[in-house]
Amino acid sequence: MASQAVAKPSALAGIWGEMIGEFFGTMILILFGDGVVATVFLYGNLGANGGASPFATEWIVIILGWGLAVMLGIYVAGAISGAHINPAVTLALAATGRHPWGKVLPYWGAQVLGAFVAGGILYFVYQGALVHALALNHLTIGDIAQGPTFGGNGYGFVFYTGHRAFVGTFGSFMDEFLGTALLVGLILAITDARNQPVQANLNPLIIGFLIVAIGASFGLNTGYAINPARDFGPRLWIAIVSGGASFTADNYYFWIPIVGPLLGGVVGAFIFDYTLGKVLAAKMLGASGTTETVGETVREVSPDSEIRGRSSREPSAE
């Protein structure tokens, strides 16, 4: 009997493919997120007679931009890796048994690398504007990280976060901790198939609105990183071009948007699991409506659709 050759699974079907998804999802997140910060603060004086541009410098523009950035990042990587695009989300999912511990470090590496590359791209795209803005403060591009991050003459805040002078270390840490706890806990509530989940592949849009809500309520204390990769990746790029000044800025503030979100995300996930999650389990609720959990995402399945691989598609007319 002739032996039948078995095709070797592609490496892209496993962890390498998931890392690529996390890399590009996070890169898209930072390109659009830090991109809107650059637009707001580097081009805020293009109004009449050099005055402020109407609406351009409003905080609402920043938080809407970040909400859309998160939405796009999730759409890019959702079916590939689950679109964590945030080390705090990855750690929280692993701590609660939703994600393998062996994939935590690869995901983190891909996320930070994606953010780092995005920071580099934005640095070159906006270099002319950065040089111009710094020159107005009698600084060069090498002084971009001159502190304090908020209220100083540098423009490091385009790439990474910092705290207001009157907020302090404890307030900054708690802001990042609480913001990320809300982020992770509400993501779990939104995506739980037993809890009236968003259907028709609209989860990314609703999570984008969640980012807007967190920014509106808790964003101004620190710039709301709520994502270690979002802060550390671009900060690392600026460290290269500023001689490490981005890490010493604000009395070595850089650890707060790393540790605060990591701890906050885990706490938020456990709070959901041991409160709302327990209630949903006690009520013995099944998946709401016609939703079906497929791979990493929740999709609405119509009566005429069939599942192929990890996505829901209508059958062809053939």
Description:
The structure is a single chain. With 318 residues, the chain is mainly alpha-helical. It has a single domain, classed as Glycerol uptake facilitator protein, CATH 1.20.1080. The protein has eleven helices and four strands; from the N terminus they run H-H-H-H-H-H-H-H-H-H-H-E-E-E-E. A two-stranded antiparallel ribbon has the order 1-2. A two-stranded antiparallel ribbon has the order 3-4. A hairpin with a 2-residue loop joins strand 1 and strand 2 (297-300). Helix 3 (87-95) packs antiparallel against helix 4 (104-125) and helix 6 crosses helix 10. The radius of gyration is 21 Å and the shape is globular. The protein starts with 14 loop residues before the first helix and ends in a 5-residue tail after the last strand. Residues 294-318 have low confidence and may be disordered.
Q: Strand tally, please?
A: 4
Enter the CATH topology name: Glycerol uptake facilitator protein
CATH architecture: Up-down Bundle
| Overall pLDDT metric | 87
Distance between the termini: 34 Å
Sum up the overall morphology in one term. globular
Which superfamily, in CATH terms, is the homologous superfamily?
Glycerol uptake facilitator protein
Q: N-to-C SSE series? A: HHHHHHHHHHHEEEE
- Please estimate the helix content: 55-70%
User: So what's the CATH class?
Assistant: Mainly Alpha
Strand order of the largest sheet: 1-2
- Tell me the radius of gyration: 21 Å
Number of domains: 1
Q: Major beta sheet, specifics?
A: 2 strands, antiparallel
* Low-confidence parts: 294-318
Count of DSSP helices?
Answer: 11
Structural class: mainly alpha
